[in-house]
Design goal:
There is one protein chain. By secondary structure, the protein is of the alpha/beta class. The chain has one domain (4-375): Alkaline Phosphatase, subunit A. 27% of the residues lie in helices and 18% in strands. The protein has an 8-stranded mixed sheet, sandwiched between helices. Strands 16-17-18-19 form a 4-stranded antiparallel sheet, with helices on one face. Helix 2 crosses helix 9 (253-275), helix 7 (197-212) packs parallel to helix 9 (253-275) and helix 8 packs across helix 9 (253-275). It is globular. Residues 1-8 and 10-20 have low confidence and may be disordered.
């Protein structure tokens, strides 16, 4: 009788039909606002992430992965549907869609606050294949009628239309920000003072895996960490305070402590898969929904995406580059690295074993090392909104070049990413032909996806000089 390991190796080599494979469980761990340079295995000079580093050593680490959007909800929708946020008409987070900015030069493009129920989600596809599924943690893809239970999940713990908790400490409720809105994380009753949200969500994820053992399962563990409020355990904060030295890129000890707790969560999930003897039957994916948040929280910069430019909200590399690690037993070679540009829309078809979604491609040829490149030469992005790091903007990115088009004044910027990954030298004036060609391709893509555009604000009055 063929062993399971030999069977999976044969499947990875393409000698057996995919339909013959026993179903693999899926664990998708999604961080919030974790920058592309934040984990240790991506080059951080402060953060300790031994479990993420170990996961990367057991699977494939993508060094050129991009979120579909520079902010949370649109990227999360792209993962669930395999469609670009521009096509979904969901280009800003839920609350931002409901109450858009109205005091700037442009009115942001209209955006839907709820992921449409007409979309066939990853959870719905897996449900049809006999999977049990749980969404644990942040949802942020619409109101109660669009919660995970309405989008194919059997279990929802903690998922609401809110994008961030009031606090990371039990009972996870309180006044949020300057709005003084009461926020809470439902479904987490029975904790004790000092209990930490990242730990508790991990508890719930492990409980689900234990209850599902023997049946194929999909665990979507969507952490709030490392999103604001920047809060961590006191002992970990002190540890990183003692480690910071002059000249470091990463200098926020509270953020570092938050990330360590997130890394411990990954370690606990991997350990539980080992204990349940499911490690060789479970695909594990770790990624983030956008680049790192570089703005201050309580007067302290949260993170630093250097050498990448800018951060969350921006379409410069710091706003869209994210960690992506995939461990797929029988498919990924331990310690492998892919430099191909990939995006969050690719996860849908990759995990379903389908060649392509509407806007994504399967990463399986890269994971199997069949190919080093995918059959596309560009990624496009559309963020027709304001954020502290940007004005409304769209972008197109090839393997070597990047063009950004800003809507307030219509100007373009061109960067040679291969030689200038920090996007410091705008070459649009020196390369008019390339600028025009990339702009044409971007415009064609915006038209094809039905992207919604910002419009002049008739009530805007520039400040007096």
């Amino acid at each position: 009788m063929i062993s399971r390991r030999s069977f999976l190796a044969s499947l990875a080599a393409g000698t057996l039909p995919a339909a013959a494979a026993p179903p693999m469980n899926l664990v998708l761990i999604l961080a919030d606002d974790l920058g592309g340079m934040d984990p240790g295995c991506y080059g951080s000079d402060l953060h300790e992430t031994p479990n993420l580093d170990r996961l990367a050593g057991q699977g494939m680490r993508f060094s050129n992965a991009c979120a579909a959007a520079p902010i949370c909800s649109p990227t999360r929708a792209s993962i669930m549907t395999g469609k670009h946020p521009a096509r979904l008409g969901m280009t800003i987070w839920s609350e931002g869609a409901i109450s858009p900015t109205r005091d700037r030069r442009l009115l942001p493009a209209p955006s839907v606050p709820d992921m449409p129920l007409t979309e066939v989600t990853l959870a719905e596809k897996l449900r049809d294949r006999g999977f049990q599924s749980a969404s644990i943690g942040k949802w942020h893809l619409g109101g109660p009628a669009n919660y995970p239970e309405a989008q194919g999940f059997d279990l929802n713990i903690g998922g609401t239309h809110w994008g961030a908790p009031a606090t990371y400490f039990y009972p996870y409720r309180g006044d949020f920000s300057s709005t003084r809105e009461l926020r809470y994380v439902p479904g987490l009753w029975g904790g004790k003072p000092g209990e930490y949200l990242t730990d508790r969500l991990t508890d719930e994820g492990i409980r689900f895996m234990r209850a599902s053992a023997g049946k194929p399962f999909f665990l979507y563990l969507a952490h709030h960490s490392v999103h604001t409020p920047i809060e961590a355990k006191a002992d970990k904060i002190e540890k990183y305070k003692a480690r910071i030295r002059p000249g470091m890129r990463h200098t926020n000890p509270v953020y570092a402590a938050m990330l360590e707790s997130l890394d411990e969560s990954v370690g606990r999930v991997l350990g539980e898969l080992d204990r349940l003897q499911l490690a060789d039957q479970t695909i594990v994916v770790f990624t983030s929904d956008n680049g790192g948040y570089i703005n201050p929280f309580r007067g302290v910069a949260v993170t630093n995406n250097a050498p990448l430019r800018s951060g969350k909200g921006s379409l410069y590399e710091g706003g869209i580059r994210v960690p992506l690690i995939v461990r797929w037993p029988g498919m990924t070679r331990p310690g492998s690295i892919s430099e191909e540009m990939v995006t969050s829309t690719d996860l849908y078809s990759t995990l379903l074993g389908e060649p392509a979604s509407t806007d994504g491609l399967s990463l399986q040829p890269l994971l199997r090392r069949d190919r080093q490149r995918l059959e596309r030469d560009a990624l496009c992005f559309h963020y027709p909104h304001y954020y502290p790091t940007t004005t409304p903007v769209s972008a197109i990115r090839t393997r070597e070049w990047k063009l950004l088009h800003y809507y307030e004044d219509g100007h373009d910027e061109l960067y040679h990413l291969a030689q200038d990954p920090s996007e410091t030298k705008d070459l649009s004036a020196a390369e008019p032909g390339r600028t025009a060609e990339l702009r044409r391709r971007l415009d064609d893509w915006l038209k094809e996806t039905g992207a919604r555009m910002p419009s002049p604000n008739p009530e805007f009055r520039p400040p007096a000089e």
